[in-house]
Design goal:
homodimer; mainly alpha; Recoverin, domain 1; two-stranded antiparallel sheet; 3 strands
Chain lengths: 231, 231
């Protein structure tokens, strides 16, 4: 793997002086470039959690409870509104567009409109990790992080976003004052977009060269699912 | 240019039997492949329409009036809420997410948050063309088109969307019954996504080969602006 081209393409190098020294796992980033942590691998879903448990071994009771609370028909799957409600018990009420993005990224490969226990447990665990990162950077406990903190938080999640890309991201969360401020909901949305697109790109760039050849069809099929409808 | 590879990649060939014979401009599509009509080229904006007119020669009076009605401070630029209001007089009240997409695609290169008379006139004219296409396919005047009509309408706009891509698009507008139905607002959103992404891809694929090599940075910068925030 060629790492020099990754590390030279972004300014948030592990030694960047404005970053707290405890924010980075140097060893981890040295080998990841911009490509981030391995994606959570949802357990293969069973058709119902009654059948074979469904939840991965060691799933905490509150996660199982949150799922079962909303899966009233005990089908073993929940839809987006139910997911929104289930996450409220552990995190907060997320915007429906964040929920749709989470559904898409953690979806059951056999049913794109619902998720099962395995995916739910993976998603819950991922959000827990992201919540801890968010709180580490929300130093004044305002519930919001600014753009520099966002950059550091994404870096801590394993995504060293190049400056040109980061500028585009920040402009999307600009509140009109020229500054971006993100609450946890927006942070999850933003991070999931970065994670999702990076993972999709990585699938095509198997050699980790930092570029890949895409056909028009594959480009469109990669990108359109991220353009979520909210009706 | 190699056209065979485009035309073989989609099933909506000009001779497809289920399509009305008057829906296609055979000559036009033969040379366009999936790449569509030339984009409207907004006139270069002046800093104020008071300075040099701003509107392209021949702009209809109702277009000028719609713009001036909302540009109350006579700055020569309107923001997204004003655009929403201005389009209401000629078309309808579009969803803010469609407005944001239109702002992005027709934006003034010098000011990404506002558009001027030149861009407004180009946008108005483009919508007029799309409205005519929409109405042609909305045969029962229900105000909605289904997925097959959507495919034909996109084709009439010059976009022969490959089946794999079209399936992804339709799944996004599925109303839960397994069928997609789009009103004019959704049609504009959907069409602008297809147009915008195709135009971006075409910028990179200058040789019209149907594929292109993208760096991670350029891929992310191309795509993220389409992932509109709606707060």
């Amino acid at each position: 793997m060629e790492f020099s081209r990754y590390n030279s393409s972004h300014s948030s190098a592990p030694s960047a002086p404005e970053l707290p020294p405890d924010s980075y796992d140097h060893q981890q980033h040295q080998y990841q470039g911009y490509y981030g942590n391995p994606s959570p691998s949802p357990a293969r879903p069973s058709s119902s959690y009654g059948q074979s448990g469904g939840f991965p071994a060691g799933t905490q009771a509150d996660v199982v409870r949150a799922f079962q609370m909303v899966d009233r028909d005990r089908s073993g799957f929940i839809d987006e509104r139910e997911l929104q409600q289930a996450l409220s018990s552990g995190y907060q009420r997320f915007n429906l567009r964040t929920i749709k993005l989470l559904m898409f990224l953690f979806k059951n490969p056999y049913d794109s409109l619902r998720i099962g226990p395995g995916e739910f447990a993976a998603l819950w665990s991922c959000l827990g990790h992201w919540r801890a990162i968010f709180e580490r950077f929300d130093r004044d406990r305002s519930g919001r992080i600014d753009s520099m903190e966002l950059r550091d938080a994404l870096y801590s999640l394993g995504y060293a976003v190049p400056p040109s890309v980061f500028q585009v991201i920040v402009s999307k969360y600009d509140n009109g004052s020229g500054k971006a401020e993100l609450d946890f909901d927006s942070f999850v949305e933003c991070g999931m977009i970065v994670k999702g697109l990076t993972d999709k790109f990585k699938e095509k760039d198997k050699g980790y060269t930092g570029s890949t050849t895409l056909s028009y069809d594959s480009f469109m099929c990669m990108v359109i699912p991220f353009l979520v409808s909210y009706d």
